[in-house]
Amino acid sequence: MKKVVYALVAAILLSAGAYIAYYQVESLNIARCLGCLAMEPKVEKFASFWVEYPDNYKQSGVPPHPQWIVDEAKEKVVMLFFWFEGCEACKRQWENMEKAEMVEGGEANGSFTNAFSYAKLITIDIVNSKDKDVLKIYHPKQIMEAPTTVILFEKNGTIYWYAFSGEANGKGGRPDINGLIDILEKAKEEKYGGV
Amino acid sequence: MVVCNLNCPSCPLAYICIPLAIGAAIAFKRYKGKLQKKRFVSQFGFLFISNTALIFGATGLIYTYFYCWESPFALMACPIGVIEHAFADRTWYLLPYLIGFIAFVSIIFGRAACGWACPIGFLQDVMKGRKVEKRKEIDKKLRMIKYLILIAIPVASYITRTLAYTDICPIGGLTATLPHLAIDPYGYTFTFFFYPKMINVVGFFILVAFITRGWCRHLCPVGAMMAQFNKVSVLQIKFYEERCIKCYRCAAVCPMQINMPYENKSGECIRCGKCIDACPKNALEFKFTWQ
Questions:
Q1: Which of A71, B71, B216, B257 is the most exposed place for a label (fewest CB within 10 A)?
Q2: Chain A residue with minimum CA distance to B291
Q3: Please, what is the Cα angle at A167 between A161 and A168, to 5 degrees?
């Protein structure tokens, strides 16, 4: 009888727990934490902004940029920062961006400092945000890998962009924080230059 | 989506699958006894199921054994990873689900998941490490390490707000980092924690080569979670004392070196059934009992 009661209690706990947490666990399972792997992917080093997908992407042609991102990119240079709680590499990159006085606030609702008034920062939690699937558009393997950083802007109706997964630490083709700032500056120059 | 079409010469992953298949064929011969053959099939089946995200996608189910959810094709979530996220991110609502999952499976099957499902247990069975005789008191103390690790994991995650154990986890190194490297050897750069992780993977292999089921006995925090349910689980190894001729073959074959047949309810028992296969008088058998 005791065992039946134990099993029932466990079954109730499991059902209630699944009702509350199943989708959160699923999202955590889908998200690939690069810090957890202790490895970060090599990426295509920044040379110039892309219009279409480069060769190392699964996809080809012009990315299906979401309309709300296109609208933002018309106004300013946009940087998308994909992250999630517990992702150490995301945390490190954020802290380094803070140290470089690029960003302020937390990852969840942070923004660029006044020095980057030409740009807009959009942080997307790849576990909890409704916009998390946007990451698949910009990831070479179409997977949920964090941290991933995307910089994009619109000029004459065309979206120019560059993306990399892994921490901005200067390794594997990725820019370090100063390199990231340079890319933002370059985006600014290209967006507003010659206007 | 990558789906096996049995066309190995043209498959980029054949260099992983073929050695695994050969290894499995060799390992099968090491499983002697009726129950053990079934256990091999079960372990192999769970290894396969654990890696079916390509078919089913990553789900919100939780492994009731140790397997990394960062593994390239991981179907379910790592129970230790869920604990770490709950404490690091303060997402306490993950805990009832995890506890319910582990408790429900363990109340029914005890620690059988370690013996019949866990891919890390499977690897240890295939490696068949040596049985090192240790003094009982020392062995008992060493077995406590896994409980200390289980306590330390949430504490470390809470304090550091990171997945502190994951950073150095040898099972993560073995089932996630190395497979990712095998699939794309030149595609990654390493972080600081890569090297401690790999040192721990080497440590894992040394441990299990010298002590049978050394990981399960001394270090596995998932085993520690399930061990407490062995005494009350529905699946038990029933001992018929009147049939016993005290040959102690059961104790001799036990990979966990439990004092069988008397400690048949021990939290250390992984319900592998080797003792049942070894008994010449059928004095031990698996029994589902609600009493």
A1: A71
A2: A1
A3: 60
* Inter-chain Cβ pairs, chain A and chain B, closer than 8 A: 160
Residues 6 or more apart whose Cβ sits within 8 Å of residue A61: A52, A53
DSSP letter at A142 equals -
CA of A18 vs chain B CAs: smallest distance (Å): 5
CB under 8 A, 24+ apart: contacts of A114-118? A116/A184, A118/A76, A118/A77, A118/A188, A118/A191, A118/A192
Tell me the C-alpha distance between B95 and A180, whole Å.
38
The tens digit of pLDDT for each residue in B82-111 reads 999 999 989 999 999 999 999 999 999 999
Is B60 in contact with A26 (Cβ distance < 8 A)? yes
* pTM of structure: 0.87
Residue in chain B closest to A19 (alpha carbons) equals B97
Q: B191 and A17 in contact by Cβ < 8 A? A: no
- Which positions in chain A touch B101 (Cβ < 8 Å)? 14, 17
Check the CA dihedral A36-A37-A38-A41 and report its sign.
negative
Q: How many Cβ atoms sit within 10 Å of the Cβ of residue A111? A: 14
Report pLDDT digits (tens) over A143-154.
889 999 999 999
Report the C-alpha gap between B122 and B81 in whole angstroms: 21
CB B176 within 8 A of CB B71: yes
Residue B56 at interface with chain A, using a CB cutoff of 8 Å: no
Q: Would you place residue A123 in the very low, low, confident or very high pLDDT band (cuts 50, 70, 90)?
A: very high
Q: Which residues from A are below 8 Å from B59, CB to CB?
A: 26, 29
Q: Is B70 on the interface with A (CB under 8 A)?
A: yes
Exposed/middle/buried for B235, CB within 10 Å: 0-12, 13-18, 19+? middle
The helix (H) or strand (E) run that includes residue A40 is: strand A39-41
Nearest to A126 by CA among A103, A107, A106, A140: A107
Res A72 pLDDT > 90? yes
**Chain B nearest-CA residue for A24:** B60
User: To which residue do tokens 């306590």 refer?
Assistant: B151
Q: Which of residues 105-144 of B touch A (CB under 8 A)?
A: 107-108
